[in-house]
Amino acid sequence: MRLFSPLYDRVMAWSRHRHAQWYLGGLSFAESSFFPIPPDVMLAPMSMARPASAWRFALITTLASVAGGLLGYVIGAFAFELIEPLVGQGGRYHEAFEQGRAWFDQWGVWAVFLAGFSPIPYKIFTITAGVLSMALLPFLLASAVGRGARFFLVAALMAWGGEPMERRLRQYVDTLGWLMLLLIALVVMLY
């Protein structure tokens, strides 16, 4: 059943849209402070569709993500009461928030760098940094280096693959999609 290839085609068309970089910047900003979808889902196809612009896309993603991280920091520092029901005892993100706090206790500013580079929800660390009143300059530097390393790596890999990778991926996208769903189902059942 070809469920994923029409979606793939749509995403690739969106990635070529003339306003795509503005949407990428908005998504990157939002994801760093409150939105759950990572910007990689736009950055990767945009870099693959337009390899010559990949570095610009990575820079936009990095700058917008760091600016969004600053908003997360401000939320943690000045408006924590508004989100406390989500991260407090019994809240939806309580475990992630407590894990972030433990990482800050153990690694300090390196926790921001690791969260910026890894698939860990970065917004948890931006808000936690604000709650803990982390020094702003080290926070911003760690964010810029961690997020930049991640996004430039994604852009470079996708640009390197370019159109040949796009065609090849299109060929197998349905098989890969179903395998991923199966893997997720197995993990959920085992967990």
Automatic annotation (TrEMBL):
Could you state one GO cellular component term attached to this entry?
plasma membrane
Keywords, ordered alphabetically = Membrane, Transmembrane, Transmembrane helix
Query: Per the record's keyword annotation, is Disulfide bond included, yes or no?
Result: no
Q: Report the transmembrane regions from the record.
A: 57-83, 104-122, 134-160, 172-190
Keyword Ribosomal protein assigned to the entry: answer is: no
- VTT domain ranges (all copies): 37-158
InterPro entries hit by this protein: DedA_domain (IPR051311), VTT_dom (IPR032816)
Query: What name does UniProt use for this protein?
Result: DedA family protein
Please report the organism this UniProt entry assigns to the protein.
Thiohalocapsa marina
